[in-house]
Design a protein that fits this description.
The protein has 121 residues and is mostly helical. The chain is built from 4 helices and 4 strands.
Length: 121
């Protein structure tokens, strides 16, 4: 892994080719590209490493996570913005309504299964 990272740092343009050849992540098929990531998209230790790096380019050290060792290249950073509550209130309301419906349906299904189990006896 260290040799692959050293090669990527020496020639960042080869990152995709190196990922294709050496990575065992499904992203290897697309040159290691994970797309645009947000905090919740990756395990915390991966997020911490790319946030601590704070730049663009190949992260100088291997990133170790519960999934193994990673050579990481950051190609672009877009800083997020905290939105005012009024701007997100409708989305929050929709999400809570969806969750409420999911819980109600799950409770209903459990009730049906419970009834069916007691009718068999």
């Amino acid at each position: 892994a260290q040799e692959v990272l050293d090669s990527a740092r020496a020639d960042p343009a080869r990152f995709a080719a190196l990922a294709l050849e050496y990575s065992n992540c499904p992203s290897a098929q697309v040159g290691g590209n994970l797309g645009q990531l947000s905090r919740g998209d990756v395990v915390p230790e991966f997020w911490q490493a790319i946030t601590a790096f704070a730049g663009v380019g190949v992260v100088p050290t291997l990133v170790e996570t519960r999934h193994g060792l990673h050579a990481v290249r950051v190609t672009r950073r877009i800083e997020g913005h905290v939105l005012p509550y009024d701007a997100v209130r409708p989305r929050i309301a929709d999400r809570l309504a969806d969750l409420g419906l999911q819980h109600a349906l799950r409770d209903y299904a459990h009730g049906l299964m419970h009834e069916a189990a007691h009718h068999d006896h």
